Amino acid sequence: MALVSSRTIDPDALRQPVSAVAGTGRCRVAVIGAGAAGLCAARHLIARGVDVVVYELGSCIGGLWVFGNDNGLAPAYQSLHLNSEARVTAYRDFPFPDGGPLYPDHRQVRSYLEDYAEKFNVKPRIRFRSRVVDIAPLPGDRWRVKLEDGGGGDFDAVVVGSGHQGSPSHPGWRKDFSGEYLHSHSYRIPEPFRGKRVLVVGMGNSAVDIASDICVVTESTTISARSPVLVMPRMLFGVPTSRVLGRLERNWMPWPVRRTIREVLTRIVHGRMEQWGFTTPKSRTHPTSHPSLMSHFVWDRIKAKPGIESVKGQEVRFADGTMQTFDTVIAGTGYNVDLPFLAPELRPLEGHKLELFLRVVHPTRRGLYFIGLFNVAGGGNIRMMDDQAEWITDLVTGEIAPPDAATMRAVMEEEQAFLRKHYPAAPRYALELDPAFYRKQLRRERRQARMRRARQAAPAAQAGQ
Ligand SMILES: Cc1cc2nc3c(=O)[nH]c(=O)nc-3n(C[C@H](O)[C@H](O)[C@H](O)COP(=O)(O)OP(=O)(O)OC[C@H]3O[C@@H](n4cnc5c(N)ncnc54)[C@H](O)[C@@H]3O)c2cc1C
Ligand SMILES: NC(=O)c1ccc[n+]([C@@H]2O[C@H](COP(=O)([O-])OP(=O)(O)OC[C@H]3O[C@@H](n4cnc5c(N)ncnc54)[C@H](OP(=O)(O)O)[C@@H]3O)[C@@H](O)[C@H]2O)c1
Question: Crossing angle for the helix pair 241-248 and 255-270, nearest 10 degrees?
Fold first, then answer.
């Protein structure tokens, strides 16, 4: 069958339910990835009778939570724990086992995901060691998925759940540093850094986890923060801080009020950020927290520096004019979204800006969906996948259809405006997702889709009378 040009767009066809185009028979959907996102998409689709094939690059379930995953993409280190509380992270109807820790470690998350795949009958649908190398449109708005080994198949729809934390983003000065350099993605255990002078770059959760991990064996550990950061306490009054915030904060509260609440709570436990060499943010930032990071500052095991001005040999000059020599740099500088199996014109990215309707629907290609392209700002990413997977299933089964292209554009612009207003412009925030704002948008769209369907059904019913 000939492939159609990926530029061919039929705006009306976009709004047809996928299963209608599939014609007779069962709708067939390919899901890419057996991580938290792909498993969730598969589970919801299977439950509604869709014929699902899950292609997984590695030989196991769990994606980035698998320590030493042979997919070569997983950043899990030995000390990795969830940093969002288990009960708010879990899929909606599948809690972590009773009696487990507040913040399970990577082994427990992996086995949780395996149990999920088992319970919801996803496991038999997974084709392991199957690297997807191409997803291309076919005539009739179907899709051809090609595997590296030459296999694959044709589908009515594709759900991409290949993750976004497998492709490290490196700082521009990397080549100027002559000492040992690695990205947090390759970090596993502290031992190789024993006795070394280590600079950890960034103040995201990877950087603070790793700095806290290695500082007990290094000669010195320095952490560089180029932007303001609020390191929230992990626990307050003996419970996770997120629970306390849940009691104090309301969605209607203006950001300055919420920021003040967070600042006050943080100050009670950690003092002012400036006291430790950081700057307190005024805008929203992606939450950083660690149960022992600030204790290491108290013990002088970690020192803070501002951003990096220049690097030459093993010497690093910081924005405050000071210079320091390091044996090793660990860049906790985040990730790029990498979708190498999609032709450039199908990739839903413009620079770092995500071009998807409600993060899920390709705005010009019917039957191409994405799941998990977000970093939830405070809350569970895995739980949010349930919301997306339910909606994808409604779209795939033809229960509801997306709106017209202009409406999709308007909603995408509304989200971009929200991000521009509330978050810094750094690439890191391209996938940031405010759960309250997003769920409100999603609820509105699903309601409107049902109304559109009712309006379409009414004349048809009258015509049939
Ligand atoms: C270190 C770290 C800690 C985190 N901690 C938390 C936390 O505490 N709480 C939280 O809610 N979120 C956390 N997250 C966010 C994380 O995004 C989610 O928890 C979630 O596990 C991501 O699942 P995923 O399925 O989107 O991606 P992944 O887990 O990366 O899974 C993607 C899967 O797709 C497969 N794949 C990729 N390319 C191909 C291909 N070409 N062909 C076939 N298969 C392919 C991969 O092999 C992989 O199995 C963390 C992220 C990181 C990096
Ligand atoms: N334990 C856990 O559960 C855990 C552990 C690790 C990660 N995670 C999650 O995984 C996701 C990724 O986290 P991450 O920490 O790897 O990445 P991240 O959140 O994107 O943070 C990257 C950090 O590096 C800085 N940075 C980026 N480019 C830089 C450059 N060129 N020079 C200097 N600094 C630079 C950023 O500063 P700016 O703000 O200035 O851009 C930021 O402080 C997040 O959602 C995070 O919550 C969770």
Answer: 140
